[in-house]
Each structure stands twice: as C-alpha cells, then as structure tokens.
Amino acid sequence: MGAHGESGRGRFMWARRVLVIVMWVVAAVIGLCIPIIGLTWLTQGAQQMGDASALADRGRPTIGTVQDTRARSDGPGTGVKHYILVRFAASDETHHSVWADGDEDKGDVVRVLYDPRDPENAITGSVTDERVHGVTRIVGGVLLGPLLILIYVGWGWRKLRDRRRASR
C-alpha cells in the first residue's frame, strides 16, 4: 500500500490547497466587510445624532401633507417598514418634500419638525426617537467596526505569538 496509498492521497492535495485558499479569501472578505459596515453605521449614527440635535435646538413645527406611501421589507420574517412622502411649507414659504417613517395614508395631514437652515432635515416623529435610532446605530457600529478590528488584531497577535513559542 506504501506507494499506492501515498499517490492516492497526494493526487488530491492540490484540491485541498485550493479549498484552503478559497476559505481564507472568503474569511478575509467577510472580515473586511463587517468592520466597513460597522464604521458606516457609526458615521450614520453620528450624523443622525447631529441632525436630531439641530432639530432640538432650532427645529420649527409645521403641518405637512402625505403625498405618497411606500412599504419595504428586508425579506421573509423581517416585517414591513412603511414610509411616507410628506410635502410641507417652510417659514420662508418654500415647499419641501421628505421621506419619513410612517403609515399614514395619502392626503393625511401630519406634524413635521424641520430645520430652517436645512429644510430637508425634517421628521414626522419625535426628536427622542431620532436620538434613540442614532445611539443604536452608534452602538452597533462600535460593535461591528472598531471592536471587531481589535478582536482580529488580538487574535492575529496571539496566533503569531503561539507560532513563535512553538518554533523555540
């Protein structure tokens, strides 16, 4: 069996090597994408917190009319999220349209809070809800972004240290 067993085993070694390389490439891609998503959430959360603070500081209430509605699902079992397109007049009599969370019907009247310096920064909900969503994104971003990068670095450092100790 000596020569035959070795050649039988060695015949598919190239396939094993290819599989290992493919697995490492996939792991690297996933390992890079997850922190990028996390950092994106982190910046979106910071932006959302800034917008909510601007609305809390200088927001002006007005009334808007629902112009359009949309429903979106992220897949089976995720539920449906409803959006409304609201048109409102700012204090300078310019008209603006913004998409917001909501399940009102076309033609319904809704309360809008907008930033007079940036009327596209407008919400139909509360500033507190916006801040909660911002904090949630920031926490998720920290967990997926920098924290995961630190875990990767720590894992790699430990592997390198273990290899050095094993070679002594």
Automatic annotation (TrEMBL):
Give every DUF3592 domain span. Answer: 64-123
Q: Where are the transmembrane segments?
A: 18-42, 138-157
Keywords of this protein's UniProt record, alphabetized? Membrane, Transmembrane, Transmembrane helix
Task: Give the highest taxon in the source lineage.
Answer: Bacteria
The name on file for this protein is DUF3592 domain-containing protein
Which organism does this sequence originate in? Actinomadura darangshiensis
